[in-house]
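# step 3/5: fold
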Amino acid sequence: MLYQWKLPDKVDPDIISHISQKFQLNPLIANILYNRNIIEDQEIYHFFNDKLDKLFDPFLLNGMDIAVMRIISALQKGEKIMIYGDYDVDGVTSVSILYDSLFQIGGKVLFYIPDRFDDGYGLSETGIIKANERGVSLIVTVDCGTTAVEEVEFAKSLGIETIICDHHEQSDKIPDAVALLNPKLIGSNYPFRELAGCGVAFKLLQGLVDRLGHKKDFAYKYLDLVAIGTAADIVDLTSENRIIVKYGLKLINESPRDGVYALMEQCGLINQELTVNSIVFNIAPRINAVGRISNAKKAVHLLTTTSLQQSRNIAQILEKENNTRRSIDEVTFKEAEEIIEQTVDLENDNILVLAKTDWHVGVLGVVASRLVEKHKRPVILISIIDGIGKGSARTVRNVNILSHIKLSESLLITYGGHQYAAGLTIAETNIEDFKNRLIDSTGSEISLEEMKPKLNIDFEVMLEQFNSDFFKGLKLMGPFGPGNMRPIFTTHGLQVFGRVDIVGNNHLKTKFKQNGVVLDAIGFNLGDYAHEFYNTKDKLSISYVIEENNWNGRITIQMRIKDFEVEE
């Protein structure tokens, strides 16, 4: 087993029967709701019938009224407003939402995406100087700014005011901005903490629309971009986020904007239903690629243009740069694996801290995530350039990587992020001490066995239990993501039926049979385990999600393998 399988507790059959009958749901779906503690009638009703009018009042966000009035004043006076974002998907969509909407309202608005290599992350003096040179009097940051204390002061010294829209954790001191919109601030009254950066930008737009007297639909037309940024940022798809993504996906599938349509063409997703998975694995990497390889401003132009031909031209550039990024990923991944093989004690080291000269900074986070998936422990990759290391950290769900980095802050030049992903800069001479401290701190907190991620199983099933009523209910449970994951099933006594192939980039493909029922199966990144499936007489326990596979217009049902065990 690659994971610790956690089976559900025993259910109350009377409650399952009530849920199934009252809401006309397949008993499997009723069981899943029960296991996720969605059992009250009103709670179940809202889960399946969330509407846009259930979105929270934007003015519940501390500082919203001040922020809205300052922007309205800037619009009325013809001030230049700069939307200042981040270079990832969340940042790009956040910038696109406010840049395009303020332009539509009639504002003098421009945007700035920092260069990953020259500016670094977040609000910087370089960007502020450029804003000043262009006559900007108001900067609105999106997906960054909560920790930019000195930068906001620098902007004030140039006569530039700042509004911050962000969702990252605050530090001990917060910037003296006109307003700081962040649901994670200490003392925040907002009912939902887990908005992505684009979600906070959207709330600001909602506030503006309300005070300007525009129809709510003006803000809702940007839900497609909010959905893309929210899904890509891997935040919880519960409460408000679930509504945002649900209606954003509906908008994309019914009437995609030109830029999104052009991306779907590049991904081969035309005439297919776009899902959260489509965004995470197809759309998001192409938007991210330009921020990693060149500059993400191209992605903002893609998402805000009204020309399909221009969209296609930009999408082709993103496709090319994504292919370049993937090539660099592969080289970096192989080099990291070589370092692990030569220098790491995988039996005892609870964290991998790997450093190399001139690794491409733009792919460190992606490669670190791949290494976390393979080695089931936190990973920090550091690229050393001219004696300074720039690093990206990723982690398993039960280890807060930011807290461990903070324990060694005396060795660092800068650091930031959140519990699952962080960045840092460090002098090359401090890297070895930093590594040893992290090995000690993670080792004292949790063992490698405890670090092994859990796989929460929703239900043990027979393949024959999957019928049309089940798939109808499964579709209603979406969109799936953190906090509302696609249900994971376990089936015992399965036998391989037919061939076992390795396809694509080390993916396992086969079929399983049970009591005459045969289903296709795919195991992403499980090609190294193909030999475990060769003996067709073996019986296997498989943990998997069930989903539709659309290949060349042909829709089939397939199991996506999460884990497996050969039965005794």
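# step 4/5: annotate
The chain has a mean pLDDT of 93.
# step 5/5: archive (pending)
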